Amino acid sequence: MQYLLIRVTTMDDIVKKSSMSKGAIYHYYSSKKSLFLSLIDHWETYSFPNFYSKGNKNKNASDTLMDLSNVVLDVFNNKRHVFLAEVEFWALSNRDEDVKKKSRLLYDKLLYLFELVLKKGIREKEFNQMNTKVVAMTILTSLQGINWFCLYEDTHVTANEYIKTSMELLIRSLKRSK
Fold first, then answer.
1. Cβ distance 51 to 76 under 8 Å?
2. Which of 86, 89, 102 lies closest to 148 in space, CA to CA?
3. What CA–CA distance (Å, rounded) separates 135 from 140?
4. pLDDT (tens digit, 9 = 90+) per residue, 85-117?
5. For the chain, which end, N or C, has fewer CB atoms within 10 Å of the first or last residue's CB respectively?
């Protein structure tokens, strides 16, 4: 499925793709824009259901970071349209304050999650002391790099190679010397 910018996608396009009536769509969404904004929540909940898993409590921070990167890789391999849509939302966020705010909330949640994992690693003496905010941003940008280096398949690096190598490199740089 190809995702288009909100301003070029019509409600008729949405009706056709969804097989719902226009009235049914407007029953749930007050506007085309509110429908598009709800997609951010939808993708977080349904595309990445295991991202916030509590099952990682007994794992060390390194394994948790690798698990998170594997979730991203799995979604990339099985639901690539999510990443295509994300690129569209990035473009929209530069022109629409509501999209920017909604996207920022999602990214703030992800950064907070990464910080929690990093702080656990520090607390358990697995990782060196660090500025967890900056390193969380580094993790996020590394995972987001899949969009630029693998999404359009014009590179000789696979998504698996990119994500695994990036995360392993980051984790090695964080670990305490023994």
1. no
2. 86
3. 9
4. 788 777 778 888 888 888 888 889 889 999 999
5. C
